[in-house]
Amino acid sequence: MATLRGGPVDRPPVSFYELNGLENPADDDPFNIYSHSSWLPLIELTREKTDRIVMRSVPFRDIPPNPLDELTTVETRYDSGSRYTTRTIRAGKRILTSRTRQDPDINTVWTLEHLLKDSDDLRAWLDLPEPEFGGNPDVSSVLKTEEIMGDTGIVLIDTADPLCHVAPLFEMGEFTVVAMTEPKLFHQALEKSARLLYKRTEAVAKALPGRLWRIYGPEYASPPYLPPKYFREYMVGYDKPMVETIQRYGGFARIHSHGRLKAILDDIVSTDCMGLDPIEPPPQGDVSLRYVRENYGKQLVLFGNLEVSDIETLPTDQFAEKVTTALEEGTAGEGRGFVLMPSACPYGRELSPLTLRNYEKIIEAIEQF
Prior knowledge:
- The chain is an alpha/beta fold.
- The chain folds into 2 domains: 2-65 and 118-368, TIM Barrel, CATH 3.20.20; 66-117.
- The protein is built from 13 helices and 13 strands.
- It has a 7-stranded parallel beta sheet. It has a 4-stranded antiparallel beta sheet with strand order 3-4-5-6. A two-stranded antiparallel ribbon has the order 2-7.
C-alpha cells in the first residue's frame, strides 16, 4: 500500500501475479491444475515470501431479471475429459452461437467459435434488450480474503473494460476489420457495454473504497492489432470514466496491457490511471522498463517486467540477469513505485523443476536487493 501511495518502502514489493498462495491443491475438481503435487512448493513459496495481490471480481446480488435469459440457451458436454460449452442467443431472425473448450491439464478456456461473425451479427446483438442495473455488490469474498491474508497482502478488484466486453465477441481478425471499417457501429457496441459497466463500477468502488483495481482489455486496441488512433478512440474515452470513478473513492486504477506500449503510453497516462502492467520487455514488448520509469514513473506505479516464458525456459543463471535488470530499471531515478512481477502465470498442470527454481530466484533477488 505504501508503494501504491507513492510512499517510501524498505524494498520493492514482489508479486507472482495470478499466483497468490490461496490456491487449493486439495480441490478434486478435474480442472484444478494446482492439485498436481509439483505446484505445492510454489504455492507455499508464494504464501510465505511474496507480497500477495489476490484478484477478485465482485458479483451482485438481488439483481433484476436479465431479459437475455429467455433468449439464451447453454449446453455443456464432456468428451475425453474436456468440457465443451455451446451458447446460443436468439437475436431477431438470427441465431448467435459461441463454443468454448476447457481441457483438464490447461488452466484456460479456448474459444472454438465466436458469438459474432460479422457486422450484421453485431447489429443484431445491438438490438438485443439490455440488462437493467440493480442489486448490490456482494463484498463478502473480498472482505473474507482480506481477513485471511491479514498483513501479508491485498485484494485487487478485477474488471474488464467496455472494449474487453465487445472485442472477444469476434474472432481477432474479424474484430480488427469491424473496428476499423465500422467505427460508428463499434462505438455503439462499446456504449452499450459501458452503460451497465459504469454503474456497476461505481457501486463496487463505493462499497469497497481504497482498493487496487486492474482494468483489462486495452491491449485489444493496441499495436499491431489497431493503429494508435483507435486506441485513443476505443480505450481512452471508455476507460477514463472507470479510472475516475475508482479513484474518486480512494481506489487505485491499474491498466493491464500486454505487448507493444511505446506508441500508446501517452494515451494510457491520459486516463489518469496510477498503475500499469505488465510492461513486457522486448521482444514481447517494444520498450524498456527504464524508459517507462524515466518518462512516466512519477505518475505510474510500474508492475513487471519478468516474462513468464523466461521463467519457464531460461537457465537460472540467465534468468537471474533478467531479474536484476528489472529491479535496477524499475527503481532507477525518481518514480512513484515499482512492483517486481511476472507477466502471467504458468497454466499447465505439471510445474517443471526449472520453473520452480526460477521463481525461487525471484525471491532470492528481491531479498538481496
